[in-house]
Specification:
Elements (H helix, E strand, L loop, with lengths): L2 H5 L3 E3 L2 H8 L9 E7 L2 E6 L2 E8 L5 E8 L3 E8 L7 E7 L6 E5 L5 H14 L1
Length: 126
């Protein structure tokens, strides 16, 4: 997917080696990036230990928020689509100790199946 997809909010898959190198300073010693997706400037990074949500803020993107969710803290997750004619989906992730789920809109073209499979593999069998 190209720049236009990114601008429209679609998630595009990133090269795991590039993301591994970029995040090396914040990854644990034995932590490996399994898959990563980019939505405009934000990223979803699935490692063998946790889900990292990276939110680049401001006009320049110099302020960055890293939200780590260890898979063992995820109590449930859901993906909801609006129907056949609306291919957008909403991802919800419930974290132990939090009353409201984390929510993320996934636009048409996002690899919803891969995201669900990654979460299921890590949360259910982690």
């Amino acid at each position: 997917m190209g720049l236009l997809d990114g601008l429209m909010g679609n998630a595009s898959e990133l090269d795991v080696n590039d993301v591994q190198e970029e995040l090396a300073p914040i990854l644990a010693d034995s932590e490996q990036v399994d898959m990563a997706y980019k939505l405009v400037r934000d990223m979803f990074v699935f490692t063998n230990k946790r889900l990292i949500l990276i939110d680049k803020q401001g006009l320049t993107g110099s302020k960055v928020s890293y939200h780590s969710m260890p898979y063992k803290a995820i109590t449930q997750f859901s993906v909801e689509s609006a129907g056949h004619f609306d291919m957008d989906s909403e991802l919800r992730i419930w974290i132990s100790g939090q009353s409201e789920p984390f929510k993320q809109e996934l636009k048409k073209g996002s690899d919803v199946v891969a995201i669900q499979k990654a979460l299921a593999t890590r949360v259910l069998f982690g």
